[in-house]
Amino acid sequence: MNEVQFGAVMADRFVESEGSFDSTVRLWDSKSQSTKPIQVLEDSKDSVSSLHVLGHEVVTGSVDGKMRLYDMRMGMMYADAIGREMALLCFTTLRGKLNFLDPITSVQQTSDGNAVLASTLDSVIRLMDKSNGQMLQSYKGHSNQNYRIRSCLGPGDSVVISGSEDGKIYAWELFTGNVLEILSAHNTKVASAVTCNVIRNEFASAGVDGMATSPSPVELLWLIAPGSVIVWGAPQ
């Protein structure tokens, strides 16, 4: 299991969505006592690395380099190739080539549902138009070639934030793609994930150094075990 999301993707149901290593996305009815999923999406050709639920739509990113949009009301699926297409010589036959796309490591829809922020293993984050699959803007400067690194949108969808393999946190202006800030956060270790609290106007990051950090002193993050983080809110 790579990611779990919760949302009302169907009119009368709150649904839990899970992206998995087995190349599927499974949907469960949170009001049901059954452990069986109500639907299994099996379009991905490789592990589903990320997903995001917004309204009745589910967007997934896969290691096969495809971003897929599922319209659960209409029962439709749309797929877009993200990132570079590369070719490798097929050594088993010594002829022909194997074409593949850079794996997608993170997807997030904008709050208005018109675009998707997608990170790939070519050290580029792309803002993609959902209506036509065109790239609206790209964000560069960070390093992401070997690890699954998450990116996210800041408050008001005005800022793009991402971790990096150099242990730093990068922030870009959404429309121009200009770097706004570079923060040293994880002692040159991989900064693997970021998340934003739009209500408190704060964000937090986590890295492979086993530390979680928050640039704001208002919120304390405490590591209690490898891979486990508790977020403590500030006293009122």
Q: What is the global morphology?
A: globular
Order of helices and strands: EEEEEEEEEEEEEEEEEEEEEEE
Q: Give the % helix.
A: under 10%
Strand order of the largest sheet: 1-2-3-4
How big is the Rg?
Answer: 18 Å
Number of contiguous helices: 0
The poorly predicted ranges are 87-98, 215-236
As a percent range, the share of strand residues is: over 45%
What do you see in this structure?
With about 240 residues, this protein is mostly beta strands. About 0% of the residues lie in helices and about 55% in strands. The protein contains no helices and 23 strands. The strands form seven sheets. A four-stranded antiparallel beta sheet has the order 1-2-3-4, with no helix packed on it. A four-stranded antiparallel beta sheet has the order 5-6-7-8, with no helix packed on it. A four-stranded antiparallel beta sheet has the order 11-12-13-14, with no helix packed on it. The radius of gyration is 18 Å and the shape is globular. Residues about 85-100 and about 215-235 have low confidence and may be disordered.
Give a summary of the structure in a few sentences.
The protein is mainly β and 236 residues long.
